[in-house]
Amino acid sequence: MTKYLIVVEKTSTGYSAFSPDLPGCIATGATHEEVEGTMHEAVQFHLDGLREEGLDVPAPHSYSTYCELPV
User: Fold this and answer.
1) Exposed/middle/buried for 5, CB within 10 Å: 0-12, 13-18, 19+?
2) What is the dihedral of CA 46, 41, 9, 20, to 10 degrees?
3) Class for the domain spanning 7-52
4) Full-model pTM
5) In which band, very low, low, confident or very high, does the pLDDT at 32 lie, cut at 50, 70 and 90?
6) For 50, phi and psi rounded to 5 degrees?
């Protein structure tokens, strides 16, 4: 099983998501649960499209971390 980093952002109308490992693969949703589900489907669709075109499926290379600072 391969894991791709998904970044979810709050917007003025709901949520949006993207994967730094899969340029152009994005999704939106009204709730964070919805955007996570929609993004899961978008990643699967994106990877299936790459395979159908005979292109390489990129290996994940992104990771997340936090920078903790006093405010």
Assistant:
1) middle
2) -30
3) alpha beta
4) 0.88
5) very high
6) -60, -45
Locate the domains of the chain by residue range: 7-52
Distance CA 23, CA 43 (A): 11
- Kindly list the strands in the beta sheet with 26-29, ordered across the sheet, starting from the edge strand earlier in the chain: 7-10, 15-18, 26-29
CB 35 within 8 A of CB 22: no
Residues 15-47: b if buried by 16+ CB within 10 A, e if exposed: bbbbbebbeebbbebeeeeebeebbeebbeebb
CA–CA separation, 11 and 29 (whole Å): 10
List the beta strands (DSSP E) in the chain: 7-10, 15-18, 26-29
